[in-house]
Amino acid sequence: MKVKVGVSQRHVHLTLDDVEKLFGKDYELTKKVDLSQPGQFACNETVTIQGQKGCIEKVRVLGPVRSKTQVEISKTDTFKLGVNPPVRNSGDLDDADEITIIGPSGTIVKNAAIIASRHLHATYEDAKKYGFLNKEFVTLVVKGEKPGILHNVYVRLDDNFKLEVHLDTDDANAFLIKQDDELDMII
Fold first, then answer.
1. Strand extents, DSSP E, the chain
2. Is the entire prediction scored with pTM above 0.90?
3. What is residue 20's three-state secondary structure?
4. Domains and CATH numbers, the chain
5. pLDDT along the chain (187 residues), means of 10
């Protein structure tokens, strides 16, 4: 089975309360462009993220607002920032590292920094058709100049999802994978 790749750059998800702290009271995020997953979008807004050693400016905020503020970075980013976040599924902030988020109207400090797990977005119909289950792990085979195997790709099912695997920039760069490439999936 082939699955399309989405390469996920560093980004921030914000709660409504944190949007207002960073951008001002009654502020609403504005859409720059739709993302591949239905209902998700990159915002015009960016923030600066700061750790113990340094900062990264112009980090894109993604919408819509979420129930938890979350900062998704790569392992490579951690060296510049001086943080040590765990690898977690989106929304799982257990042991998330502390990070400072700086906006034009304010600053927040939260335990919100994670390295996002590799994951597969799919519908329940996709799962039935191809034979995998929610919250299980699948394996991807990478062909090309730097072939390899990506184990422990977490399956996330929702009828609003589009079939696509999400890798962070470190995974993608390690195997010379780019946005919209197709990988073979082993169940």
1. 2-8, 11-13, 31-34, 41-50, 55-63, 70-72, 87-88, 97-102, 107-116, 119-122, 137-142, 148-157, 164-168, 182-186
2. yes
3. helix
4. 10-115 (no CATH), 119-186 (2.40.40.20)
5. 96 98 97 96 98 98 98 98 97 97 98 97 96 96 96 96 97 97 93
